[in-house]
Amino acid sequence: MKSNSRLPSALIFDMDGVLVDSNPFHVQKWIEFLHERGIPYNAEDLPKQILGSRNDTAFRRFLGRDLPEGEIEKLSEALEARFRAAFRPHARPLPGLKALIDECHAEGIPLAVASSAMTKNVDFVVDTLKLRFYFASIVTGDDVSRPKPDPEIYIKAAEKLRLAPEKCVAFEDSFVGLESAKRASMKCVAIASTFPAEELRRQTQADLVVEDFQELSLPRLRELYGS
Predict the structure, then answer these.
(1) Among 16, 21, 173, 207, which one carries the catalytic annotation?
(2) Helix-strand-coil percent breakdown of the chain, rounded to 5?
(3) Which conformational region is residue 96 in: left (phi greater than 0), alpha (psi within -120 to 50 degrees), or beta?
């Protein structure tokens, strides 16, 4: 019987809804943005339309497909500055995250971030949580040409670690993020911080669905690879 004690070879984390419970603040910033401009939206559909996606995708959804790149950059800078100011006092790691990170770090398993957020936001969260030391690489939405659910960001994260994607475990909370990780051939754990666990089980190909990191350990992640 072949041992999988060296698997996973790496852990790769999305950020919003995974490292931190920031998505309510992202939804609120979009509600304010759309209200201010009188743009109609469906409150029930909004989280799935924006969470896990890059801002350019969301802006084009609500403001038109022909929105110039320069205008998108300007709007995004203002929108995310609003998010950082609102979220700063509330920034703390999801329950159990630090324990899992410490466990993997002690085993010499590399960690990375693969987030659709702009680099400024990722730097803000990683540094506020004092986690930068742990991450061997960080890939953001600014580093890829094709946003989630395309697998580019996870493939690039694995390449930076010089590892095969199928030997990595990704942690995601959004539907587009889970699809991105699975299309990259990674094992994927869904964190039910943003969407209900049962919905994630029914509607995604996640290998495991948990409420938070308190349900996880390195031995449990190794079980994803079988015997």
Answers:
(1) 16
(2) 50, 15, 35
(3) left
Tokens representing 23?
Answer: 């998505």
Beta strand ranges found along the chain (DSSP E) = 10-13, 111-114, 135-139, 168-172, 187-191, 208-210
What band does 6 get if pLDDT is binned at 50, 70 and 90? confident
Distance between CA atoms of residues 93 and 46, nearest Å: 24
Calpha distance 134→95 (Å, rounded): 17
Q: Dig out the tokens for 22 from the structure.
A: 């920031």
- Sign, Cα dihedral of 176, 177, 180, 182: negative
Active-site annotation holds for 14 = yes
What is d(CA 204, CA 206) in angstroms, rounded to the nearest whole number? 6
Instruction: Identify which of 218, 217, 226 has the alpha carbon closest to the alpha carbon of residue 9.
Output: 218
Is the pLDDT higher at 96 or at 6? Answer: 96
pLDDT average, residue stretch 44-70: 92
Flag whether pLDDT at 49 surpasses 80.
yes
Q: What is the mean pLDDT of residues 4-20?
A: 92
CA-to-CA dists, residue 82 to 26, 32, 121, angstroms: 10, 10, 11
Scanning the structure block, which residue is given the tokens 């919003």? Answer: 16
List domains and CATH numbers for the chain.
10-21+92-225 (3.40.50.1000), 23-89 (1.10.150.240)
Give yes or no for residue 1 having a pLDDT over 50. Answer: no
Please answer whether residues 193 and 94 qualify as being in contact, where contact means their C-beta atoms are separated by less than 8 angstroms.
Answer: yes
Distance between CA atoms of residues 64 and 43, nearest Å: 19
